[in-house]
Amino acid sequence: MLVNSKKMLSNAKKKKEVVFHFNINNLEWAKCILEECNELKTPVILGVSESAIKYMGGYDVVASLVYSLITDLEIKTDVCLHLDHGSSVESCIRAIDAGFNSVMLDMSKKPYQENVEKVSEVVRYAKNNDVSVEAEIGSMGQISGDSLQLGTNTNLEDCKNFVKDTGIDAVAASVGTVHGIYKGKLNIDYKLIENLYNEIDKPLVLHGGSGLSIETLKKCKEAGITKININSDIQDSWSKAVRNFIKENPDVIDPRKIIGAGFQAIKDVVREKININK
Ligand code: 13P
Predict the structure, then answer these.
(1) Domain chopping of the chain, boundaries
(2) What's the pLDDT tens digit per position in 111-146?
(3) How far is the CA of 250 from the centre of ligand 1 (A)?
(4) If DSSP codes are grouped into helix, strand and coil, which group holds residue 18?
(5) Residue 84 known to be catalytic
(6) 3-state secondary structure 211-229
(7) CATH number listed for the domain at residues 6-277
């Protein structure tokens, strides 16, 4: 069933479990993730970036694709369709109008007051449409090549005020992770996660979940993270499987066989991550 993320995240927060957000790029990604989560009987958030939306054709295409897969594949588990890193109020409204159940407005690089004002605007629109809202405070680090440019970890007091001032349903906090697969050792601030968990009434979101060991993901969960976003790990596994397939089968031209060679790799990543709740 399609739902917003409020109930799935508040249930998980109470049990100190994690709901995974997996980014989708196309029909195949959505299908594999839905099938695997349905088999594992676990709720899931399908995150879609604006660039992935553009790639697939638009907000309506994405919504109808996900809605139709849920019907045709008879998916029974709860699914939330979420706009990842929305860059403007307009983009969030467009997603909500298309049928997304959850949106993120990322104004984390803007001054505090502007972040609050824009996010509050989205919250007002979202509430009238039963849609949940995530927003970010603090800023994530960036990987460029093999080097890491550190971000600014979320400040506890700012975060408390931000949640109160905006009325958001989930807060993305910067605690030392980066988007993408960083090969070096990251300095994750588990104490900060614990403090945020104890003092903030809303679920905490960890962006940049790829490249972290299962042990690290479990430590983040135990410290108080409720939602973990995964994108690059799936892309990495899928592309390795497809590259191998093409190398070993240079004469195959059927795109279903080539693209499909990576399906099990997508499912394996999904299963491996979800199993941290066991
Ligand atoms: P990764 O690519 O590091 O998994 O990050 C995904 C993410 O945070 C999407 O919002």
Answers:
(1) 6-277
(2) 999 999 999 999 999 999 999 999 999 988 888 777
(3) 32
(4) coil
(5) yes
(6) CCCHHHHHHHHHHCCCEEE
(7) 3.20.20.70
